[in-house]
Amino acid sequence: MGGARFRAIMVSKVxxxxxxxxxxxxxxxxxxxxVVVGVSHSTVNYKDGLALTGKAPVVRRWPMIPGIDFAGVxxxxxxxxxxxxxxxxxxxxxxxETHFGGYAQKARVKGEWLVPIPSNLGAAEAMAxxxxxxxxxxxxxxxxxxxxLPVSGPVLVTGAAGGVGSVAIALLSxxxxxxxxxxxxxxxxxxxxxLGAAEIIDRAELSGDVRPLAKERWSGAIDSVGSxxxxxxxxxxxxxxxxxxxxxxxxxxxxGSVAPFILRGVTLAGIDSVMAPMPRRLKAxxxxxxxxxxxxxxxxxxxxxxxxxxxxxxxxxxxxxxxRLVVDVTA
Length: 331
Description:
- 30% of the residues lie in helices and 28% in strands.
- It is of the alpha/beta class and 331 residues long.
- The strands form three sheets. Strands 3, 4, 5, 6, 7, 14 and 15 form a seven-stranded mixed sheet that branches. Strands 10-9-8-11-12-13 form a six-stranded parallel sheet, sandwiched between helices.
- Strand 11 (218-223), helix 6 and strand 12 (237-245) form a beta-alpha-beta unit.
């Protein structure tokens, strides 16, 4: 086979289910697209853990290079918006699901999917933010759009020690919100307070039986957990408040009632990072470049080589990963 060779993680179907392994590929193996990117960094998000382990049907085309985001430099482009040398990132659009993803040293994608890396961020920092941080920013934008402001009252962040939660806390605290962090990892209390959390509550307060309504405790929330936790978050949201829902770590179900909506006027705002329109993406990344404390970002980030992704996948699903995992795809 012709074409330049590069390393990638490929997930394939086998008799026992699926197999993920590090392999060598050629640029001839890449999927269709009008821009070739030399990938330097990716991340490990919760969704990546699901894809790599097969715990959920994330991968919808086989075989697949997982990795739902990447950052790198344009090597070749038939899209006039991009030139060789441009620094770019990509989140979503089926990356790692239906289109070869970020766990490879090269990618060929549609130019319309790409976002310029903000000038004050390096590729590694862009992926320290990654899909988790970009999702957190989309959630903050949703709270602002529904007039949940610092003066409105505290904001709850569930799954606080995870990727979305960590970035959400750092963003909200810098914007002046009083942040309540819900976590099952009480040993991370110092870490969460360093990020800006004013109060820590045990996730057990939110993961049990659901009441239609509870005491009004927060004006808004960013929830990456779903299921009973999200139902209890809604029940404890103050009149006119908004909950931004962006995850399913506990489950896809929502075993609550309509009481928060029709008795307190609560809004449930769904956050989709995969197919979000480009203007919203650009706004989110513009805000991340200005509103996120890069010192706090560094404090929540650990870097691993490409081969380390295989061990990290079950760890992130087990809730053993704190903050953000950056993948140095070149290492």
